[in-house]
Amino acid sequence: MIRMTKILYYPELSYRVTGALFKIHNKLGRYCKEKQYQDAVEMLLKQKGITFEREKKLPVSENIEGNQVDFVIEDKVLLDCKAKV
Q1: Tens digits of per-residue pLDDT, 9-60?
Q2: Does 67 map to a domain?
Q3: Mind telling me which InterPro entries this protein's record contains (predicted)?
């Protein structure tokens, strides 16, 4: 049996962000579009004084374009919003 160790990196920041996300979901509900959730996340992060970059491209190497993430929060946490419609 493989034992997995659960490690929570940046616990204080993670709890603040998770709390903000639950607040947004409880307010908006589950039927909004991805852009609406992203706008709400941006607004709440600004209100809480949490620094972030929105729609940041993450290159794979110098000449290869990588992925784009919705939010890079305090240069520590990546957040990508998803929504079902």
Answers
A1: 999 999 999 999 999 999 999 899 999 999 999 999 999 999 999 999 988 8
A2: yes
A3: GxxExxY
Is the pTM value of this prediction over 0.85? no
Does 55 reside within a domain? yes
- Give the DSSP letter of residue 49: T
Per the structure, the count of domains in the chain is: 1
Report yes or no on 46 lying in a domain: yes
User: Which phi and psi angles does 79 have, rounded to 5°?
Assistant: -130, 125
Q: Closest Cα partner for 70 from 34, 20, 19, 21?
A: 34
Residue range 60-81, pLDDT digits in tens: 877 777 889 999 999 999 999 9
Domain span including residue 38: 11-79
Residue 6 counted as domain residue = no
